[in-house]
Amino acid sequence: MAGKRNSSSSSSRKNRNDAPRKPKKNPLTAAGIATVDYKDINLLRTFISDRGKIRSRRVTGLSPQQQRQVATAVKNAREMALLPYTTH
């Protein structure tokens, strides 16, 4: 009995993944921003959750290089006390 799997859960997962995905819009290319600056606090706040965490690429829709730039800029802004580490 241990070898049997629940077929209903795998079929529902299959149906969910069969739908074509719409790619996320890249907010930096839409705004025409080539490089991310740590002093642009309003832009960086869009990539931070309400708990103070940096949002993932899957959520933001950035390219890997842009995500690294955003992460570095957020960390620099936190170090310069422009952004908080956490929000209470």
UniProtKB/TrEMBL annotation:
Residues 1-31 are annotated as: Disordered. Residues 1-12 have a biased composition (Low complexity). Transmembrane segments: none annotated. Part of the 30S ribosomal subunit. Forms a tight heterodimer with protein bS6. It comes from Tomitella cavernea. Belongs to the bacterial ribosomal protein bS18 family. Keywords: Ribonucleoprotein, Ribosomal protein, RNA-binding, rRNA-binding. Binds as a heterodimer with protein bS6 to the central domain of the 16S rRNA, where it helps stabilize the platform of the 30S subunit. HAMAP family: Ribosomal_bS18. The gene is rpsR_2. It comes from the Bacteria. This is Small ribosomal subunit protein bS18. GO terms for cellular component: ribosome.
